[in-house]
Amino acid sequence: VGAAAVVAAVNKAALGHQPHACGTVGCLQAYPGSRNVIPGEVRMTLDFRHLRPERLDSMISEVRDVIEATCAKHGLSFELTPTADFPPLYFNPDCVNAVRNAASELGLSHMDIVSGAGHDAIFLAELGPAGMIFVPCEGGISHNEIENADPKDLAAGCAVLLKAMLAASETVAAQH
User: Fold this and answer.
1) Quick one: CA dihedral 155, 161, 162, 164, positive or negative?
2) pLDDT band, residue 117 (cuts 50/70/90)
3) What CA–CA distance (Å, rounded) separates 28 from 149?
4) Which option is the CATH number for 2-74: 3.30.70.270, 1.20.140.10, 3.40.50.1100, 3.30.70.360?
5) Would the pTM count as exceeding 0.85?
6) DSSP sequence for 57-100
7) Secondary structure element (H or E) that encloses residue 161, with its range
8) Which residue did the predictor score with more confidence, 113 or 55?
9) Residues 151, 152, 156, CA angle at the centre, nearest 5°?
10) For the domain bounded by 93-175, which CATH number is listed?
């Protein structure tokens, strides 16, 4: 029951901080895991994302308050162990424009999106200008075992990357 209250609080916090908020309980394990035994322990992962750090902090605070109140109400205890914390990253505007322009020049539909996932580009952006290109996935499902993209969409993404890189190289060459 305590775990259910936390799951509901994560969902409520994410929905209450739109746009660009994400809250997920991706893993939830009850121990001992027997269908007719009340669990003595529940472990879960909580994942919060938002573009604005203050909104992210607010989401986490709201859920922490529910965890504390739920534990007090039901005589439970909890332990929170942070595993990763990546601040929001805004990609290099020149890279983003190069991708946007390449898609337009190729006649491809495109839109700016926000990704809360921890991609390698987060780390590359520490070394130099970075951006990302996403292609549509079947049913909108990504970062999942059943993710599937049409080969034509993958080829279009590669064409956008090539055109964006060529444009960037021309810009750099013109500056020197």
Assistant:
1) positive
2) low
3) 28
4) 3.30.70.360
5) no
6) HHHHHHHHHHHHHHHHHHT--------------PPPHHHHHHHH
7) helix 151-175
8) 55
9) 115
10) 1.10.150.900
